[in-house]
Amino acid sequence: MTGKFISFEGPDGAGKTSVLKAILERLEPALGTKLLITREPGGNQNAIAEAIRDLVLSPDYPEMDSRTEALLYAAARRQHVVQTIQPALAADKVIISDRYLDSSIAYQGGGRELGVANIEQINAFATQGLQPEATIYLDLAPEVGLERIQAHRQGEINRLDVEALAFHQRVTDAYHQLIAQTPDRFWVIDASQPLDAVIADAWDAMQEILASELA
């Protein structure tokens, strides 16, 4: 596989959607059809993974067991890998994914307290070890993220948005542990800065990651 696989990660409220939008607006003219944009849970033109997304994020199922949730995320990820990511890598595309495996480790392993090792194990089976070569992580204190959600978010509110601060603190702690374990993969951006500065830092990282494609 010769393509490039890059993920974007961050806690709720870090501004990932806005930053990604700005980055993709710069990448699309430069890469054209070589660029593939996707997301998790779900995926680019991936009906099975999108159906799982609708189920796992729906606020209509507050009784969903935490292990059920973790297994559903892994199932959606498996379909995403085989139907979207692997074919794109084989076609030498640049894949930008809004979240990937790190999110499950942080949210289910840390936030839900299911254990990082347990989540890594079921996802190793699901992904067969496929990891991004680079991950841009927007770093933000969880209390700031929750304040932003309350102040600015409109529209969809999913099951994870209504969790207590302690849950989001565990998520952030798990992300930080991942970064400490694999620092060469992560590009950490201070998301407490003004949005323009966050975008500028993320774009600098992306230019370095994709130096050969953007030359």
UniProtKB/TrEMBL annotation:
The keyword Ribonucleoprotein does not apply. It catalyses: dTMP + ATP = dTDP + ADP. Keywords: ATP-binding, Kinase, Nucleotide biosynthesis, Nucleotide-binding, Transferase. One of its GO terms (molecular function) is dTMP kinase activity. ATP binds at residues 10-17. It comes from the Bacteria. The keyword S-adenosyl-L-methionine does not apply. Gene3D superfamilies: P-loop containing nucleotide triphosphate hydrolases (3.40.50.300). It holds the Pfam family Thymidylate_kin. It is an enzyme of class 2 (transferase). Coiled coil: none annotated. Residues 8-199 form the Thymidylate kinase-like domain. One of its GO terms (cellular component) is cytosol. Its EC number is 2.7.4.9. One of its GO terms (biological process) is dTDP biosynthetic process. Belongs to the thymidylate kinase family. Phosphorylation of dTMP to form dTDP in both de novo and salvage pathways of dTTP synthesis. This is Thymidylate kinase.
